[in-house]
């Protein structure tokens, strides 16, 4: 169904007209249905594995991806480090690798700048989250914002691993 984006006019023949499918998709997206389904599936998987249903630790990283020519100039740029024109997606997953949040920025925006929004955006749906692992690209701003985001006595930042990864919590 997807190439670089959802090709609504190329849906399989047994689907309703693309306008109907897109209408449901739009309404469900605005209503947060997909987020609720994702969160409930994550809870069920964690419970089945004998873990707390709500993650207390997460991992953050980003990936630069090429954007289609139709993507507006404001939301795309050039990631000089990875030599990719397009967008950058920042993913936060729990310790099982299950998705918690996605944030999309222009590819040229440094990870540390994108990290300015992440603590507040994660805090609302995941108030129990007290630990975030991220590579050194997230160091500056995320480390500075870690103490108010994390538990009262866990404002320690440790460098772990040979790549300069950070343990925030």
TrEMBL record:
<dbReference type="InterPro" id="IPR025161">
    <property type="entry name" value="IS402-like_dom"/>
</dbReference>
<dbReference type="InterPro" id="IPR002559">
    <property type="entry name" value="Transposase_11"/>
</dbReference>
<dbReference type="GO" id="GO:0004803">
    <property type="term" value="F:transposase activity"/>
</dbReference>
<feature type="domain" description="Insertion element IS402-like">
    <location>
        <begin position="3"/>
        <end position="37"/>
    </location>
</feature>
<dbReference type="GO" id="GO:0006313">
    <property type="term" value="P:DNA transposition"/>
</dbReference>
<dbReference type="Pfam" id="PF13340">
    <property type="entry name" value="DUF4096"/>
</dbReference>
<protein>
    <recommendedName>
        <fullName>Mobile element protein</fullName>
    </recommendedName>
</protein>
<dbReference type="GO" id="GO:0003677">
    <property type="term" value="F:DNA binding"/>
</dbReference>
<dbReference type="Pfam" id="PF01609">
    <property type="entry name" value="DDE_Tnp_1"/>
</dbReference>
<feature type="domain" description="Transposase IS4-like">
    <location>
        <begin position="56"/>
        <end position="141"/>
    </location>
</feature>
